[in-house]
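Example record

The entry below shows one chain as it appears in the dataset: sequence first, then structure tokens.
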Amino acid sequence: MARPVKWARDLHAIRERASNSRTKTWSRVDIENLFAVGRATAQTLTRAIGEVQTVAGAHFVDRSSLLAFLDEMIESPAVEVALKRRLVEASAPPRRRSLKVALSADQRCAMAHELPSSIRLSPGELTIKALRLEDLLESLALFARVLENDFDTVQTLIESPQKPADDEALRDLVHRLRIQP
């Protein structure tokens, strides 16, 4: 048998408070207050409500999803069973993946002129070539460190006026035009 849900007896009052509220997006704390539950239960309810939006690591649900959830719970003959079904069907909220990139001691003090050939700076452009995602992340971390260590040089390289392309065919054309009377 499913564990009793203590807020089930207050569903109509909860629904009325939610529909009369001006809150459009509900955070975990808002859910805690609305249902009069603790943190863990509010997190579970947020997952059961569904359509979780993640902003800066915090999870939110919108008013329409909350009201639809409450309507479903009110109409259900057994709130405990309906809640359990929603939790089984619910997908876990998106998790932030921690990216760890370690720079060697010499890379931590790298300057713009020490960037590897896989990182190219030109006026208005940064180009990074990598075969693997890990290599790209390492290059981005190195570039970020170079920005910290040598910002003025990087700024000069990126913001300097563009030079015309060094194209041999173009030089030949100019040379021929000069020779012709």
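Notes for this example: The first helix runs from residue 11 to 20. Residues 6-89 form one domain.
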